[in-house]
Amino acid sequence: MAEVFFVAGEASGDLHASGVAAELRKIRPELKLGGIGGPRLAAEGVELIETYDQLAVMGLTEVIRHIPRHYALLKRVRARLRSGEIRLLILIDYPGFNMRLAESAKAAGVPVLYYVTPQVWAWGAKRLPKLARIVTRAAVILPFEEQLLRGYGIDAHFVGHPLLDGWDRLPTRDAARAVLGIDKDARVLVLYPGSRVQEIVRHIEPFVKAARALQKKHPDLQVIISAAPATEHGYSNMPYPVVAAPALTMFSAADVALCKSGTTTLEAAIAGCPMVVAYRVGKLSYAIARRMVKISHIGLVNIVAGREVAREFVQGALDPEAVARSLDALLTDSELRRRTIEDLAEVRAKLGTPGASARVARMASELVA
Q1: How would CATH label the architecture of 3-160+353-367?
Q2: Which of 1, 158, 208, 245 has its CA 20 to 30 Å from the CA of residue 228?
Q3: What are the pLDDT digits (tens) for 193-244?
Q4: Residue ranges of the domains in the chain?
Q5: Cβ count within 10 A of residue 151
Q6: In terms of CATH, what superfamily is 166-350?
Q7: What are phi and psi for residue 273, nearest 5 degrees?
Q8: pTM to 2 decimal places
Q9: How far out from the chain centre does Cα 12 lie?
Q10: What are the pLDDT digits (tens) for 100-130?
């Protein structure tokens, strides 16, 4: 039986991969699905050989401690590639691990579909010639990526952003609040410190301090913490409720959000929730990243917009009082709030149309021998 093997190294990759797995089962039910991922892939019947919570790390220096575990897993998957068990390798993001697997698949004659490709636009184009050698086809989710990758000879296709696949299920503000048990007239701030334990550890303290500072001006403000699946254990002694609900539900219910950078900012944009973006990593990781990163913004919402539509507070600039002032402006300055919501709608439009998972599944079906 032909096997399609997924590799998703973190929560967002697990989400995107699961959509493809669900669509692939519809059109090719005879295929065996295996991989590395999390609860969403498993729920779609994908047989996992490892879960992403054993792999996900944050920052350049933190990766070093995980090298032995990563190497052992690479060895296992490489053996399966050489055996001929795997007929298609679908890689989702996670480039440090997945680029190595793609090389092995190329050597074994196994086609590679890379979904959510490495962010070469942030780190420079050095990876692009290599990507062109080892990837059979690329499914990209940001509008400017297709032309960039095609310029290096990569068979790249913009499939739209997978977050839009749930667009038809986006709840209204009142419906989201009913699900979360929040009064429809309350003023609400949602905190999203991350989907990895390392991110939570670095962000939760300044995020909570910012919320407390904002509550001094708005005593009636309700604050909730959005927890990604399987990360609830990363929180302890929180002054606010920790809720493991879909991010789109949380952002639909909120008046304003404080988000770590990344996919979360696009979820807030899709829900039309004005936000402030913050991010912090280890000092050495940040020093190295500053030398390598080639873009002026860190939040995906700003990168897609091509300008700052959400204030950013990065590393040492992550001052809770300053963050609280920016959040307050989004709550109280009606003109700023109106412009911001319009900007977020523009970002949402740039992300394409719903159906990314189905498009990628069709590409995968074409590639399976």
Answers
A1: 3-Layer(aba) Sandwich (3.40)
A2: 158
A3: 987 777 888 889 999 999 999 999 999 999 999 986 555 556 777 889 999 8
A4: 3-160+353-367, 166-350
A5: 12
A6: Glycogen Phosphorylase B; (3.40.50.2000)
A7: -100, 115
A8: 0.83
A9: 4
A10: 999 999 999 999 999 999 877 556 667 788 8
